[in-house]
Amino acid sequence: MTASAGEPEWLHGHPHEPNLVTPAGDGSFLLVTPAGEELISPTALRTLPQTTITQCMIVSTGHGASGPFSFAGIPLAEVVEASMARANSRYAWESVDVIGADGFGARLTRGEMDSAPADRPVLLALTLDGSPLQRAAGLVRLIVPAEVHDALKQIKWVARIVLT
Ligand SMILES: Nc1nc2c(c(=O)[nH]1)N[C@H]1C(S)=C(S)[C@@H](COP(=O)(O)O)O[C@H]1N2
Ligand SMILES: [Mo]
């Protein structure tokens, strides 16, 4: 597949080996909706009720699998809906781009979020096996439990979340 002008390269496949350089940052990310932009910090997310998902594997293309891990955090759909509610917006979003500080990202459809089992939602994870995620592991990391054959959606260093 070929990327069209203006589209991120990651929409069309696996553009690079996993990034081994940890980008700087404190884990805060920008949530971009038609209603505006909101900066959300891991500290703010830690004040909300946490969801824990056990038995998560990170299946790397070429580097083997790691896990099983238990990740805890806030379901992505909840973060999006809470922000829309704060902005009084009724925008009918169809998908969400989650992009790391290194520019690598994934597009999640509303359908795949809605169809995830209630106890295995698409998650913005803050902890791994009960301890805060270190910056090298993402600090805030997208966990998509349904992705079991590779790890292209397990986005580390979440920096921007854009509704489309
Ligand atoms: N931000 C970001 N997230 C990323 C990547 C990346 O390059 N940048 N690589 C993905 C790929 S291809 C893999 S295999 C896993 C590796 O995760 P690990 O370092 O926890 O093993 O991270 C995924 N998430
Ligand atoms: Mo990978």
Describe this structure in words.
With 164 residues, this protein is mainly β. 13% of the residues lie in helices and 37% in strands. It contains 3 helices and 10 strands. A 5-stranded mixed sheet has the order 2-1-10-5-6. Strands 3, 4, 7, 8 and 9 form a 5-stranded antiparallel sheet that branches. It starts with 28 loop residues before the first strand and ends with a strand. The mean pLDDT is 92.
Explain the layout of strands and helices.
Layout: E1 29-33, E2 36-40, H1 42-46, E3 51-60, E4 64-75, H2 76-86, E5 95-100, E6 105-109, H3 110-114, E7 123-128, E8 131-132, E9 141-143, E10 158-163
Parallel strand pairs: 1-10
Antiparallel strand pairs: 1-2, 3-4, 4-7, 5-6, 5-10, 7-8, 7-9
The structure holds ligand MTE and molybdenum atom.
Provide a concise account of the structure shown.
With about 160 residues, this protein is mainly β.
Runs in which pLDDT lies below 50 for 5 or more consecutive residues are none
* Main pleated-sheet profile: 5 strands, mixed
**N-C termini distance:** 21 Å
Query: Compounds present?
Result: the ligand Nc1nc2c(c(=O)[nH]1)N[C@H]1C(S)=C(S)[C@@H](COP(=O)(O)O)O[C@H]1N2, molybdenum atom
Shape: globular
Order of helices and strands: EEHEEHEEHEEEE
Question: Number of DSSP strands?
Answer: 10
* Gyration radius over CA: 15 Å
